[in-house]
Structures are given as structure tokens and as C-alpha cells.
């Protein structure tokens, strides 16, 4: 394939609208020819068409299904405790300060909250937004990871049997909306990432609900706190 | 362009995505949750636009994100590239599903992060990550129908240029040139749009 032939079908190529063999011929030509600098840009423009589709909300079940599939795919050996995960990569400054991992209960939460608050300045977008509390030393820190996305970091949640689940709620004007289900580790810790506009929320609460979750809370909160 | 044209908040974004890519490489489900919350609605919107039904669209999104999970070792930090990679995967999974639905063979175009990475660095880094989705939609809408339609048929319906020519009853050469011309116009529009974006910020 020569340069003219490539130019002739470059638009179709950028849009993946060529039959496989022809597309492979163009790719091979572009790999060795520098006379088509616009090829990469046209592909990028074609890729940007993904943003022309209006956003839409998938069902809440998709996230649950996805996370289940991940767990099935992961080797048990890879499954590092999630708290180490979050300290390890999400907040590198925390690990550098060597926060004692074994510290008990509320002290850990207090420390994490403190560190999060401390690093919340200069170039750190994350900041503690709220803390939730409950009975028997159950508690959680909520912080904003980036605009519209929050992380709930909880502990002291008693393990539930498979017929029940923890569910996170946002409350605005007295009305609760589900932010999703929360899975807990056997040690009572839980981490959840959900989409929520903290400016539009008055408080957050966690309740125990039947497996699959409820449309509105059916029990009293085990954790709650103002935002 | 000089570096000081970059909005300072973008630097955080880059840094944070280093964390996110790192988390994915460590197979931390939390990293996937973050990616899902950030991109899930755009990804589902795209798949839904292509497939037209919720369950199939969700399957395409799930398959794409599982592919990200499996290929996480090859992912690097920049947000623009990670987002592009994810949406490219969603697009391909959805188009494959659509073709199967229509009784056609799936195209099975392989998507490799390395290939997404090769996309003109200047363009993808600076432009793609700053464009608002509304801008792409508006630019597409402004194209003359005769260019927009073939582009939509290629991108959202997964048709080849031969299939588009047959469906629109046009000579193949006309379809080729309209696809090219339409993309060129979009390129100019997005470049201009992103320039405005950078100046505003």
C-alpha cells in the first residue's frame, strides 16, 4: 500500500470503518512512514466521539456485579487487605509517615482523619468531609476524593450473614437516597467509593438492609453523621 | 505550548491518576471503584447509545472494565489516556455486541493500551482531557448531515465504509472523502474549543 492509497482511506481507518485486512495494511504502513502526521489526530478525534454520547446512569447492580467479577478473577494471594491498599497507593503520604497499622479502633480513624486533614492543603485535593459514628466503636471517615466522588472508610461494622447487607444513604431535606451497598471485611472494615455531591447533602447514614438493598432505609442507622 | 498554560488543577489530576493506575496495577478493587464512579456514566451512555438497551450496554461496560483490570500492568498514569483507553474498549465491546445482534461477525478489533498511547501526544494530552462532552456533541451536530451521518454510522453502528456506501447508496469514494472531511472539521472544532477552555481556566 502506498501513501496515496493510505490517504484515500485514512478517515475510514481512523473510525475503524475498514475491513480487518485493509486496516492492518494501513497500520503497517503508518508504522514505517512519517508522511501522515494527521493519522494519529484523526484517530484521537474519532475516539473523542465517545464523549458525544450523553451520559446515562447504569443500574446499581452493575457496580456490584463488576466488583464480584473482579474478586472472582483475582488470585486469593493477590487480595491484599484493602486498608493497606488505600494507604499504599491512594494516600502515599500516609505510608511515608508510617502510621502504626495495628492501632486499635477509633484511634486509627482519628489518625487517618488527622493525616487526611493535614495533607488536604497545598496540592492535595482530598479532604475529610465528615465522620460517622455508631455504637460499639463503629465509625467511619468520609472524604472527597475528587469533585463528586467520595470515599467511605469504616470500621467496627459487625459481619452480616448473606441475607443482609450494609447500605449507605445520603440525606438531603430529610429525604434519604441510596448511595449503594457496602461490603465489609471479616474484621469489620469497609471501604466504599460512591458518587455524591457533598454540597447538596446534609448527612450520611449506614443501615442494615436485606441483601440487595432497599429503596429507602428500613432500619435505624448503625452509623450516621452530618456532612 | 509553554507549561504555564496548564491549569494548576490539572497537575493534581495527573498525580492522582498516577495513584489510580498504580492501584489498578496492584489489583486493588478500590481503584476500579474509583474508575467506575468517575467514568461509569459516560461509559454506559456510550454503550447505550450504540446498543439501545440497558442490559446489553451494561454487559459491554463490564467486559470493558474487566479488560482494563486484566491489562492493568500496561496502564500508565495520565488521565486522558486512561479515560480514552476505557472508552475505546467500551466502544469496541459495544460494537462487537451490536454486530452479533445483527447477525454479523464481530469485528474483534483488538485494543491495546500501547496503541491508545501512540495517539498524537499533543492532541490527546492537551485537548482530549479538557474537552467537555457537550463540545464534542455540539461539534458533531454542526457538521453537515452528509458528513455527520456516515461518521455516526461508522462510529455508533460499527459499519465499514463499504456497508455505509451500500446503505446510503453512495459511491465508495464519496463515503471515504466525507468520513475524512467530517473528521477534519471535528478536529478543527475541538482544537478551537479546547483553546477556549485553556484560556478560560
Description:
- The complex is a heterodimer of chains A (227) and B (201).
- Chain A has 227 residues and is α+β, with helices and mostly antiparallel strands.
- Chain A is 34% helix and 25% strand.
- Chain A has 2 domains: 3-52, no CATH class; 60-226, Immunoglobulin-like, CATH 2.60.40.
- Chain A has 8 helices and 8 strands; from the N terminus they run ααααααααββββββββ.
- The longest helix of chain A is centred in the middle third of the chain and has 15 residues, at 105-119.
- Chain B has 201 residues and is mostly helical.
- Chain B has 2 domains: 8-129, RNA polymerase sigma factor, region 2, helix turn helix motif (Rna Polymerase Sigma Factor, Chain: A), CATH 1.10.1740.10; 132-201, Arc Repressor Mutant, subunit A (Orthogonal Bundle).
- Mean pLDDT of chain B is 78; it is low at 1-15, 119-123 and 195-201.
- In chain B, helix 2 packs across helix 3 (54-70) and helix 8 packs across helix 10 (172-200).
- Chains A and B meet through helix 2, helix 4, helix 5, helix 6 and strand 6 of A and helix 1, helix 2, helix 3, helix 4 and helix 6 of B.
Topology readout:
The complex is a heterodimer of chains A (227) and B (201).
Chain A: H1 3-8, H2 10-14, H3 20-32, H4 38-48, H5 60-73, H6 82-90, H7 92-96, H8 105-119, E1 127-133, E2 139-146, E3 149-155, E4 164-172, E5 175-182, E6 190-195, E7 203-210, E8 223-226
Antiparallel strand pairs in A: 1-2, 2-3, 3-6, 4-5, 4-7, 7-8
Chain B: H1 8-25, H2 29-51, H3 54-70, H4 79-101, H5 113-118, H6 121-128, H7 133-142, H8 145-155, H9 161-168, H10 172-200
Amino acid at each position: 500500500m502506498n501513501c496515496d492509497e493510505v490517504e484515500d482511506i485514512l478517515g475510514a481507518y481512523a473510525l475503524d470503518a475498514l475491513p480487518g485486512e485493509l486496516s492492518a495494511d494501513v497500520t503497517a504502513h503508518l508504522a514505517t512512514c512519517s508522511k501522515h502526521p494527521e493519522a494519529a489526530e484523526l484517530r484521537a478525534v474519532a475516539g473523542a466521539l465517545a464523549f458525544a454520547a450523553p451520559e446515562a446512569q447504569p443500574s446499581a447492580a452493575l457496580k456490584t456485579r463488576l466488583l464480584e467479577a473482579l474478586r472472582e478473577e483475582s488470585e486469593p494471594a493477590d487480595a491484599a487487605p484493602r486498608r493497606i491498599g488505600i494507604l499504599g497507593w491512594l494516600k502515599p503520604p500516609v505510608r511515608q509517615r508510617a502510621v502504626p497499622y495495628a492501632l486499635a479502633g477509633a484511634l486509627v480513624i482519628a489518625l487517618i482523619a488527622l493525616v487526611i486533614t493535614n495533607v488536604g492543603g497545598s496540592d492535595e485535593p482530598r479532604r475529610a468531609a465528615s465522620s460517622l459514628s455508631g455504637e460499639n466503636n463503629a465509625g467511619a471517615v468520609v472524604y472527597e476524593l475528587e469533585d463528586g466522588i467520595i470515599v467511605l472508610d469504616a470500621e467496627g461494622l459487625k459481619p452480616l450473614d448473606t441475607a443482609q447487607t450494609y447500605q449507605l444513604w445520603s440525606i438531603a431535606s430529610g429525604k434519604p437516597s441510596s448511595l449503594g451497598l457496602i461490603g465489609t471485611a471479616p474484621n469489620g472494615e469497609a471501604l466504599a467509593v460512591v458518587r455524591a455531591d457533598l454540597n447538596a447533602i446534609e448527612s450520611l447514614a449506614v443501615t442494615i438492609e436485606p441483601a440487595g438493598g432497599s429503596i429507602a432505609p428500613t432500619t435505624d442507622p448503625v452509623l450516621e453523621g452530618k456532612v | 505550548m509553554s507549561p504555564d498554560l496548564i491549569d494548576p488543577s490539572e497537575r493534581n489530576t495527573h498525580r492522582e491518576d498516577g495513584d489510580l493506575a498504580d492501584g489498578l496495577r496492584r489489583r486493588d478493587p478500590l481503584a476500579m471503584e474509583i474508575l467506575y464512579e468517575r467514568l461509569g456514566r459516560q461509559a454506559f451512555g456510550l454503550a447505550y447509545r450504540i446498543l439501545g438497551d440497558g442490559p446489553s450496554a451494561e454487559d459491554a461496560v463490564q467486559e470493558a472494565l474487566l479488560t482494563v483490570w486484566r491489562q492493568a500492568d500496561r496502564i500508565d498514569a495520565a488521565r486522558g489516556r486512561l479515560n480514552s483507553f476505557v472508552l475505546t474498549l467500551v466502544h469496541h465491546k459495544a460494537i462487537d455486541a451490536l454486530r452479533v445482534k445483527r447477525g454479523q461477525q464481530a469485528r474483534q478489533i483488538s485494543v491495546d493500551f500501547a496503541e491508545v498511547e501512540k495517539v498524537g501526544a499533543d492532541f490527546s494530552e492537551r485537548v482530549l482531557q479538557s474537552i467537555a462532552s457537550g463540545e464534542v456533541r455540539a461539534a458533531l451536530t454542526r457538521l453537515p448531515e452528509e458528513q455527520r451521518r456516515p461518521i455516526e454510522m461508522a462510529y455508533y453502528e460499527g459499519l465499514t465504509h463499504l456497508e455505509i456506501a451500500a446503505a446510503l447508496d453512495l459511491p465508495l469514494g464519496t463515503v471515504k472523502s466525507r468520513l475524512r472531511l467530517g473528521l477534519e472539521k471535528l478536529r478543527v472544532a475541538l482544537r478551537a474549543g479546547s483553546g477556549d477552555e485553556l484560556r478560560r481556566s
